[in-house]
C-alpha cells in the first residue's frame, strides 16, 4: 500500500501504532500522523490515503465526525477505529459510518498485522479491478470516437463517465505516436495508437499546460472545446484534421478553427508524370516536382487533404507501373501510405524521396541485368549456329557489341561456365550425337564440330568422356544392339 494515516491526539500511542505498522511486514510507502480530526480531514481532501487508523475522542473534530465527513470525499480510505472504550454504541455508530475494523487500546501488534495483511490483499484486488474498469472505459471511449454509435450505446457510455473528464469541458488532442505505455489521470486520458496517431482527452483548464509540458515539440491538432460524450466523435475528427494541418505546415499547435476547410483538385496528371519519370533519367526532375508540392503545401497553396490524396495516388501509380519488374515495390511502398506515422512533412519527404532515388537505382540495375541476359541469349544462339567454325570469345563478344572483359564475366554468371569450357562441352556433345547416329569418320566429325586438327579433337574428347571417339561409338552400338 502507498499511504497510511494515523489520527490520534496522544503522541505515544501514535508512535506505537506507527512502529507496529513498520514491523508488520506489509510494505507501506509513507506513514502520516495527525493529532486531531480536522488536520486529518484536510490531508484526506488533498491526497489519496489507503488506510486510516483513527481515535474516537479527539479535539476539533472527533473520530465519528471525521468518518462521517469522509463519506463525501471521492477517495475513501479503509478505516480502523481505535478506542479506549469497549462501548457497543460507539462501535455500531462507527461501523455504520464506514469503519472496517474496531480495535481497543492498548493496541496489539498481532491485531495490527492481521488487519494490514487483510487490507493489503483487498487493495491489490481493488486496484486490479479499477485498472480493468479503466481499460473497459477507455475502450468504450475509443469506440465512441471512431465508430457509429447508437443512441442507447451513447447513453450507456454517458452514464458510465458521469462526473469524469468527458462530462466536463474537454479538448481532444491528436499528435504523432508517442513512446511509452498508455496512461490516464484526473485531468486526461491517453491512447498511444488510434489510427496511427496518439490521442488525448484533456480537461479544458489543463490544455495549455499539457501542450507546453507534455507535447512540446510535437505537431499537435486541437479540437474545439466540448462537454459530453456525445461530442467525442466530432471532437476527434476535428483534432485529427488539425493534426494533419500541423503535420503539413510544420506548426506545433493547430486548432481546428485555423485549418483550411475548402478542397483543391488533386494533381492527378502531375502524379502520373512523376510516376513515369521514376524509371527514367528524369528522376531528379520527378523528385524536384515532389519537393515543390511539399513546399506549396507548407505554404497552404494545397490543403493537407490534397497532399495526402496526391501522395497516395503517386504510390499506387508507382506500384502499378513497376511491380512486374520489382516485385518488392508493393511491400516497400506500403509504409509510405502511413503518411502521418512520420513526425512531420519534412521527415516524410526526406525518406520518401530517398526511397524513390534508391528504387530508381535498383531499376537501372535490373534493366542492365535484363539487357545483359538478352545479350547472353543472343551469344549462345550465335555459338550454337557457328560452333563448327573458327570461334573464340573475341568473335562472339564483338557480335553482341559487348566489352570483352565484361562479356567474359557476364557469360560465366549466366551459364555457370567460362566461354572456353562452354564451347568445348557443346562441341563434344554434338560430336557424341554424330558418333552415335552416323557412320561419319572421326576426322570428318572433328571438322564438323569445329576442330581442324583430328589429334587435338581426339585428345579433348578423351579428356571429357574418358574414352576415345572410336571406343565411344563402339560402346553406343553395343548398347543399342542389346
UniProtKB/TrEMBL annotation:
Entry GO CC: cytoplasm
Residue positions, PTM 4-aspartylphosphate: 55
Single GO biological process annotation from the record: phosphorelay signal transduction system
Predominant place of localization: cytoplasm
SMART domains: HTH_ARAC (SM00342), REC (SM00448)
Tagged with keyword NAD: no
Cited PROSITE patterns: HTH_ARAC_FAMILY_2, RESPONSE_REGULATORY
Residues in HTH araC/xylS-type domain copies: 377-475
Localization, UniProt: Cytoplasm
Alphabetically ordered keywords of this record: Cytoplasm, DNA-binding, Phosphoprotein, Transcription, Transcription regulation, Two-component regulatory system
UniProt GO MF annotations: DNA-binding transcription factor activity; sequence-specific DNA binding
A Pfam family matched in the record: HTH_18
Domain Response regulatory: 3-120
Record has Transcription regulation as a keyword: yes
Domain of life, source organism: Bacteria
Annotated InterPro entries: CheY-like_superfamily, Homeodomain-like_sf, HptR, HTH_AraC, Sig_transdc_resp-reg_receiver, Tscrpt_reg_AraC-type_HTH
Protein purpose: May play the central regulatory role in sporulation. It may be an element of the effector pathway responsible for the activation of sporulation genes in response to nutritional stress. Spo0A may act in concert with spo0H (a sigma factor) to control the expression of some genes that are critical to the sporulation process.
Listed name of the protein: Stage 0 sporulation protein A homolog
Organism the protein comes from: Kineothrix alysoides
